[in-house]
Structure formats: structure tokens, C-alpha cells
Structure prediction request, 702 residues.
Amino acid sequence: MTVPIQCRHDETFVLNLGPQHPATHGVLRVKLTMDGEYIVKAEPVLGYIHRMHEKMAEDGTFAQFMPNTARMDYLHALAYNQGYCMAVERAAGIEVPERAEYIRVITVELNRIISHILWWAAFLLDLGGFTPLLYAFDDREQVLDLLERVTGSRLTYCYFRFGGVYNDIDDEFITGTYAFIKRLRSRLPTFYHDLVTGNIILQKRLKGIGIITEEQARRYGCTGPVARGSGINYDVRKNEPYSIYPELDFDVPVYDECDSFARYMVRMDEIDQSLRIIEQSLDKLPDGPIRAKVPKILKPAAGDCYASVETARGNLGHRLVCTGLKNPYRLKLRSPTYCNLSCYGEVAEGMLLPDALAFMGSLDLVIPEIDR
Amino acid sequence: MDTSIWKPILYLIGFMAFAGLNAAYLGWCERKGAGRIQRRTGPMEVGFQGLLQPLADGLKLMSKQLIVPKGVDGILFRVAPILAMIPAMTSFAVLPLSGNIQARAMELSVLLLFALASIAMMAVLLGGWASGNKYSLIAAARSVSQNLAYEIPMLITVITIVMVSDSMSLRDIAVAQEGGFWHWNLFRLDLSIFMPISFIIFFICSIAETNRAPFDMAEAESELIAGHMTEYGSMGFGLFMMGEYLNMVVGACLITILFLGGWSSPFGLLPSLGLLWFLLKIYVILFTVIWIRWTFPRTQVYKLLNLSWKILIPFSLVNLLVTAAFLKIF
Prediction:
């Protein structure tokens, strides 16, 4: 919906949305210049949870930075684990055993599912629907129990190691994961789609709201569900294949509507696709070692390497510059949410306040990942 | 004993107790209901099944200091919560709960109730304005536009009912519907074929009037934090909450009297238990309202206004005309 802004600019007021506001899900601050309930200008202000992760990487050894990776995007922590591991493995030339790759993909996709489920719950909360949150947490809990079994933690995983994973998965994990796939497949159509997706209030609030055109999405470097909701068929797992993704059969959901509902549908479809990926990987799971032989203290040769993975929010890049010492010279992160948020100011202009908040929710922001 | 003195006093105590209990225990019912809908248990700790929770909450709110922040209009800030409570309480003076329980049998009780309902809207406006908070101010503006938009279709629907019943007294309207559910206004298709539609319009409007989800624009906790209640603590907040629940009760009573036959029993069974039937009906309505709140997301404020101005008002006007024509011809 495009709304012509008819205001005298001397009659506006500034509304501070955040850093403590329930709809920003963290300490994001948006400086809104408002004309009544219309937004004249929206300016995201970042940095409230900046913790110098990149600098911390430079100060410790390569392995010491592993726990930090989970503390940026805490909702899809395993993808951050994977991205960093891939960068270091490329720098040091480490081969990962096949079984470890499968375990990585299974756990990363499980983590992607619960990230999307949690986004769904929080998004509905933004829209004023409280009940879906509890249904979503019920499902999320099942995955957390599974992941806790193999990784030892429930939110900020530090599970991957250079050259493999920390722990092997056991039969109970495998049967539990099959059971979860069955359970979620039976619950998705009823609890998620019948109750929420088909709801007329939800559709009226999302369809045609928060349109990010394909041109804007490209210009701001949007990736992940935000780009795919704007008709850009880009998924790192397909476009720059890594790990065992080329061997797996899955689709990349793309919607051309560019609105909040398109982004919503992309994420809901991705849950289905992730279930497919997990099922195939579990079927194909080979035997073998779960970790390659890697020296305790890594000293990769001097050089410059880059690895990117697809997180639940988009393209995550790690650029690693090594000088042959036991710590990296520089680690630069390209986090997806930072780019996805950058289009907010342009798109939110002229929107109504409740629509702008629904739009913000549809971007799936994780603030610690933006600030790092 | 001179009954003329005791009667008003007993009514006063009785209705105050009814109002107070409802305001406190509807909160408990809502939390329990929400718990069941969300597959959890709701309050369980204080007393059996958490039944003493409202008492504990009330004590906590009363023992806290009412903080009046800087830059707040002190008088209006203190008056607003009281204004939220009083009109709802006063409404009980004319509400008939059964054939022989009514404090004042006013001829124009319908009119009085709607006048009082408009004052309740002032509480949100004053609270939002006096708070000196931008979010509260937006909430106040929203609530006024919402209430204006929804009072019109509501009143037009009520005019239809008044025309049909030929009276503005709630008691007469209820008495006219006695003798089984087919006499209830909701099912009187012989009076106007649009009666079920008027019921739906009235039901939607009363949800919007009482600021309940999915029309809780004024307090929208994820947009405006708590809207007009952002700056309120202790009993200031408590009174707003109690006022909201009391308004819900008054709304449910009105729906029952105007459309569901008041205290008349649905199949002519046990007509002497008027109060019981009345309470049963209002609690069914209140449960529906709670159910709706925990199922639907919030609508968007301008779509809400569109719904009123573009759909509900034209429909209720057509309804009024058709009913008037019906009454004239037959």
C-alpha cells in the first residue's frame, strides 16, 4: 500500500522506537519522524549491543573464537559455527570427513527450522496474536531436546570443530529426529497454516505491506528470505554449493509479491524444505570418523580466504586474513540482517506505524548479529 | 421494618459486590481460559487452581505507590483511571439482572447506558493525553476515532431494537422476548429478516467499544507498549484494568438483554430461575470474547475504521430502513 505523504514538515514529531520496545526484539533503536501515525522518515540507530566480536577474534587463537560465533545470531547459532569452521578449514586446508558433513547439515537444518519457528512466533506476537507463540515453543522444545543431546547446550551451541564435529549422533537422536519430522509435518498444516496463515486478519495485515522491490533488494544487498520474498532466486546452498548440499534434493522457495506475506511464505516453505533435507541426510548418513586429525594449535599459512553459508536470515560471509600466526590477522563478518535492515529506512517511509512494525517483524531481525 | 430504606442499600451492596467480583475474577477467568487455549494451566500457585490470584494481585497493586511522572498533567492523570471505572459501575444501577432484580427501572435506561459508555471513552482519552507520552497520545487519538466509528453502527442497531420492542426501557425489551428462544430478538425474523446481522454488528461493535482484541488499538502492547496505560502503575493501572472488565460485563449484559431474551429461559424450563439464565448467557458471551482475544491477531487501526465506516454503518442503516418498512407495512 502506498500512501501519499501530505504533511507540512514543521508539524512532525520524533518518536523513539526503542532501544527498549517490545517490537524491536532487542536493543535496536529506530528514530521515527512521524506525521500523526504516518512515518515521514525512519532511521535505524545501531550499536547498542556492540561487543567487538571481530576484535576478539584477532586477540585469541582460532579455536578460542568458536564460542563467540554462537553469540551473534543466537537463533541460528550452528550456521555461524559452520561458517567460521569453513573459513578456517579453507585457510588451513583441512578435509572434513563425510559423516561429519552429514551431521553438520542435519543439525544446521534442525537449527534453521527452530529459528524459523521462533521467528513465526515472535512475528505473530508483533501482530498481537499471543497464542501461536506457545504452540511454536512446544515444537521448538522438541528440537532443543534433540540438539541438547548431541551438542550439550540449548541455545548458544559450540558444537562444530575444525575438521568435524565435537560429538557423534546416536540412535536415539536419529529416531527422535525422524519422530520430530513426522510430528512437525502433521502439525504444520493445522497449527501453523489453518490457524494462522489462512487467517483473514493476518492476510490483510501482511499482503501489500512493506514492499521491497527486486531492485531495492539488490541495491541494499538483501539476502535470505527477504531477497527470496522479492523474487530473487538466491540461496548460497544452491548458488555457491558447500558441504553436502549439492547431493541433496531440495527446492528454494521464491515468491514474487515482494510484500511481508511473501517473506512469511518463504520462511514457512523453508521449514518444509529443511525437513526434506534432514530426512534425506538421515537416510544417507554414512559411517566413519567424525573429526579429521587437526593440530591443537592451528597456524594456517599466510593468506586470505572467504567462506559464506546460508543462515536462516541470509548470506553470512566470513573473511579470514591469516599471517601464519596462531591468531587471525583480521576476521570480517558479513552478517545478513545488517544488510536486510538497511533497506528499512527507505521502505518504511510513508507507512503507518503498525504497518512499519509488522514490516520490521517480517525482516526477522536478530540485533546481536547486526551489531556484533 | 421499613423496606424503602433497606432496598437501595441492599442493591448498592449487591451490585457493588457483583461488579467487584466480576472485575477481579474475570481477570482470573481470562488467564485460565488463555492457559487452556495455549495448552498450559494458567495460574495455579495462589490457592486452589490459583483462585486467590486476583486477591494477591489486588493487594500488590494497592500497596504500590502511584507514581506521577514529571511533565504529567497531575489532575487529569489521577482522574482518568477513576473515570474508567465509574461509568461502568453506574451502569449497573439500571441493568435488570432478572425480572425482579433491578435497582432503578428507568424508562430511558438504554439511552443512559450509551451515554455512560461514551464517558468511559473519555477515560482513555484523558489518560493518554495527561500522560505526556507520545505513545499514549497516539493511543488516545486512536481510541477516540475508534469509539466514534463504532458508536454509530451500534446506536443504529439499538434504534432498530427499540423500534421493534416499542420501548427504551431495558426491562420492557427483555420482557417482550419471554417465552422460549424463538421469541428472542436474535431469532425474530418475522420482525426483520436482518436480525442475525444486527446481532453480529452489535457484537463486533461492543468488542470494539470495550477495546478488546482484535480491536485493542488503544493498548496494542507490541506497537504502543500499553498505550494509554504506559505511565500508570499501582491502582491507576488496576482501575483501568477493572474498568475494562466491567465494560465487558456491561456489554455482555446489553447483548443478552437486547438480543438473547434477557433472563428468559430458552425452552420455557425453570422460568423462575431468571438470574441463573441471565448469568449463564452473559458468561457464554464473555467466554466468546476471551476466546476471540486469544485466537486472532490484532487488526490494523485504519482497516478497523474502514470496517466500521464502509461495511457496518451502511449495513446497519439498511437494516434500520428495512425494519422500519416492515413495521409500517405489517
